[in-house]
Amino acid sequence: MHLIEMELYGFKSFAKRTRIRFSEDITAIVGPNGSGKSNIVDGIMWALGESSVKQLRGNKMEDVIFSGTDRQQGVNFAEVVLTFDNKDGFFDLPYEELSVSRKYFRSGESQYTINKKRVRQKDVREIFLDTGIGKNGYSFIGQGQIEEILSTRPQDRRNAFEEAAGISKFKLRKEETLRNLNKTTDHIERIDDIFSELK
Ligand code: ATP
Prior knowledge:
The chain has 5 helices and 6 strands; from the N terminus they run E-E-H-E-E-E-E-H-H-H-H. With 199 residues, the protein is α+β, with helices and mostly antiparallel strands. A hairpin with a 2-residue loop joins strand 5 and strand 6 (117-119). The radius of gyration is 21 Å and the shape is globular.
């Protein structure tokens, strides 16, 4: 598995549709200050489902949309498409290539796709959960992050180990199931109330 290509349109400083190909070896992105190197990393995190605007170095989600310059008008939506090689079956999906995309409109509407099919944000997140690539994975090591992990609270550190061990997916599903169970218990209680009133 490796990231083959990234396509950006209207994302931060990328006003025009831009394709970046990544080789299987190391890719280094170099450029002057403010030329958009970090925006590329932000774009990858964003397409993988990052929802924290702080992580994306903004104040609100709309900040990911190209806002315009003296020479170029702003646009109405931002889009990032990531294409991964999956010939080794790293992702548990029947595709040799996996393409995920995220689109965000100024109206606040979001759209996600997996291999061009509309899906929910949750579906995209689930693919990457426990792979080490997702939102809470270790593929993005920012400045000071190693220090942060070492000095963090034991519970937070445990979360990091759980993600690395591949069990956070099951934890998330358990939480979801418990929520559904509580809802069902509420419904049963309401039915019992109605029954006792009818008796
Ligand atoms: P450095 O080497 O200093 O870290 P960098 O190459 O990583 O810089 P970025 O932080 O990726 O640069 O890009 C910053 C640039 O992106 C700024 O010029 C900023 O104006 C531009 N930018 C960010 N968001 C938007 C947006 N929504 N619309 C237009 N331009 C944007």
